[in-house]
Design a protein that fits this description.
Layout lengths: L1 H20 L11 H26 L10 H21 L2 H16 L5 H36 L7
Length: about 160
């Protein structure tokens, strides 16, 4: 009896995902707007690149005796992908996750412009210093190995 209840819950969860694809409404439209819009935009850019790649791949190829497939396939990828992305961003579980991400990002204390510049200068200085030190170690070990005959001198 317990297994049938779990099976029903899984079936309802799967049905809700499929049912969610065909809905038009927004889930909690006033919460997490920036994060949801940015996520949707990134997915749409990836879909546009996929559609462009499929168009370039099908360019000049004739399927079933017609060239219209080079337009139909990319357009289908765009339309179906845009709709699926829009619905996934409004799927309750994923939308709640994005809302929580935006709430956490609002809690972050971001550095001031001056602090950012000073920190960047320190990081760049440390990177160049380490590069110079590693270059010195490389020269030392190469010279030692050439002196010992382990490494041959380039001709």
């Amino acid at each position: 009896m317990r297994q049938s209840a779990m099976s029903k819950q899984k079936a309802m969860a799967a049905g809700s995902l499929v049912g969610e694809i065909f809905q038009v409404g927004l889930y909690k439209p006033s919460q997490g707007r920036v994060t949801r819009q940015a996520t949707c935009a990134v997915f749409w850019v990836v879909l546009a690149m996929a559609a462009w790649t499929s168009y370039q791949t099908l360019l000049g190829k004739s399927l079933f005796g017609t060239d219209t497939w080079q337009y139909i396939v990319p357009l289908t990828i765009l339309v179906a992908g845009f709709w699926a992305t829009f619905r996934v961003v409004n799927y309750p579980k994923f939308a709640d996750f994005l809302i929580a991400v935006e709430a956490e990002m609002n809690k972050v204390s971001w550095p001031s412009r001056g602090e950012l510049i000073r920190s960047s200068i320190v990081v760049i200085f440390v990177i160049f210093s380490l590069a110079i030190i590693l270059f010195g170690f490389d020269l030392f070990w190469r010279g030692l190995f050439q002196f010992c005959g382990i490494l041959l001198t380039p001709q």
